[in-house]
Amino acid sequence: MTTAFIDTIIHGDCLAVLPRLATGSVDFALTDPPYIATYRPSKNNSGQSVRNNDNAAWLEESFAQMYRVLKPDACAISFYGWPKIALFATAWRHAGFRTGGHIVFRKPYASQSAYVQYRHESAYLLLKGKPQLPEKPLPDVLDWTYTGNKMHPTQKSVHVLMPLIEAFTRTGDLVLDPFAGSGSTCIAAAQLGRRTIGIEIDEAHHRTASRRLAAHAAKAGIPATPAGIGGGLEILHQR
């Protein structure tokens, strides 16, 4: 069943889609899930919103499914919101993941100020089994590139994600993002010659991600099919 979804942004709830992927079929997962925080839209993103950002009902099962579909001895990287790290860490542990590293992305600006200025983003490297060490280990502090959040309220730069994919995958590997948003993970994977599967529950964001992936395919001269790049296979929502 996994083969039908490859090089596609799937419109659906990842809790409905992930069970349809074969166990042990994915080489690497890179995702930026909702941070479980009350998100305030800004003028930069035209009032766009993030689905399920106000609850954690999806958290444990989504990572349990990610763990299942990963191959033995594989890695995943998940961004997270630091105020909810206890929830994320519990979900990762219950799924079976071990932590293999912590990556901080330093920002040249403050995205918010309270007791301190918020000048970084964070992600954990998660391990299933005993993955092989990368040939060129990444530094655990990297520079951030700001997208302006024009396509998605928490849009990640393709340039930020590409080194993560390159370090933990090889050409032709399958990269999964169950919370695809505007599709940056899938674009980064495709640009590096990896196969990809994205899942996005929000219809508007799914359209954006599909258009971006289809545009990459056209530029690269890759023929798109109904089940191929940007195909946007419809999956019934279960929430």
What structural keywords apply?
single chain, 239 residues, alpha/beta, Rossmann fold, 8-stranded mixed sheet, two-stranded antiparallel sheet, 10 strands, globular
Architecture overview:
The chain has a single domain, classed as Rossmann fold. 26% of the residues lie in helices and 23% in strands. The protein contains 6 helices and 10 strands; from the N terminus they run E-H-E-H-E-H-E-E-E-E-E-H-E-H-E-H. The strands form 2 sheets. An 8-stranded mixed β-sheet has the order 1-10-9-2-3-7-4-8. Strands 5-6 form a two-stranded antiparallel ribbon. A hairpin with a 3-residue loop joins strand 5 and strand 6 (117-118). Helix 2 (59-69) runs parallel beside helix 3 (85-95) and helix 5 runs parallel beside helix 6. It starts with 7 loop residues before the first strand and ends in a 19-residue tail after the last helix.
